[in-house]
C-alpha cells in the first residue's frame, strides 16, 4: 500500500514537471516567432552585412593598362596628408627621397625633409638625439607605437598609410568579380577610401546603435561607425594650383597619393606588362606560322 502511494506521488510530480516544460517550450516558440517577425521587418535580430553601402566607382588617372599618376594631384594629396592625416596616421615605409617621383627637385625634397625633426642615435655617449630630417629618412610617425596611437584615439589605432590603398577593398560579389577580370578593374582600394572620406555626415538609421566615440559612416568595412572623426571639411587646406577646395577633391587627391605610396612603381609595372602581352601575342602568331612551315611536307 505504502508503495502505491509513493508511486502515485512520483507520477503526480512527473506530470507537474511535464506541464512546466510544455509551458516553457510554448513560451520559447512565441519568442522566436516574434524575433522572426522583427527580422523580417529589418529590425533587431537580422545580421547586418558591412559595409552598409558599396563604394561608387570613380575614374582614376592610374586605372587601366595605360594608367599613369597625375603629378599635380599627387602633390595636392601630399599636402592633404601632411596637413591633416599625418597628425594621426603614420606612413612608415615611405622614404622622403621618393618624393622626387611627384615632380619635386632634390633641393625641394631636402627642404621638405628638413621641416621634420627625427630621432637618431645612439651617439658616442649612447644617447638618442634629435636632428632635422634628411631625404633618406622615412616619414616620421605621429605616435611612438600603435598602443600610444590607440590610447589617443579612443582605443582604435589609425592604420599605417604605406600600403593601405592596396590593403582595403570591398568585396565585389558574383558576377561582378568575373567581369572585373575583363574590364581590368583594380581600383577597389582607392574607391573604398574615397567613399569612406566622403561618406560622413548622415544620420544613422534609427535601428542602428552607434557606440559612443564613433562616427556613423555607411561605407566603413567593419561596422556601422568608426573611431575616426570626419577628417576633412571644405576649404580646410589651401591649394596653390586653383583646384577646388572641397571635401570631394581633397578625398580624391589624398586617395591618389595613398595609391602612389602603396605602389610607386605601378606605371612602370603596367608599361612592362603591356609590352610583354604584345610580345607574347606576336610570338604566338610566329610560332603558329613556323609550325605550319615545318610540318608542311609531312603527309598525315
Ligand atoms: C584624429 C585622428 C585622425 C585623423 C586626422 C585621420 N584619421 Fe583616419 N583613422 C583614424 C582612426 C582612429 C582610424 C581607425 C578607425 C577604426 O578602426 O575605428 C582611422 C582609420 C582610417 C582608415 C581605415 C578605415 C578602415 O577600413 O579600416 C582610412 C582609409 C583613413 N583613416 C584615412 C584617413 C585620411 C585619408 C585622413 C586625412 C584626410 C585621415 N584618415 C585622418 C584617425 C584619424
From TrEMBL:
Every Cytochrome c domain range: 72-244
Give the primary localization class: membrane
PROSITE patterns in the record? CYTC
**Source superkingdom:** Bacteria
Kindly list the positions annotated as binding heme c.
Answer: 85, 88-89, 228
- What does the note accompanying the cofactor annotation read? Binds 1 heme c group covalently per subunit.
The molecule here is called Cytochrome c1
Q: From start to end residue, where is composition biased (Basic and acidic residues)?
A: 33-53
Q: List GO terms (cellular component aspect).
A: membrane
The alphabetical list of record keywords is:
Heme, Iron, Membrane, Metal-binding, Transmembrane, Transmembrane helix
Q: InterPro entries, from UniProt?
A: Cyt_c-like_dom, Cyt_c-like_dom_sf, Cyt_c1
Regions of biased composition (Low complexity) lie at 11-31
User: Taxonomic classification, please?
Assistant: Bacteria, Pseudomonadati, Pseudomonadota, Alphaproteobacteria, Hyphomicrobiales
Q: Where in the cell is it found?
A: Membrane
Name one molecular function that GO assigns to this entry: metal ion binding
Pfam families per UniProt? Cytochrom_C1
Q: Which cofactor does it need?
A: heme c
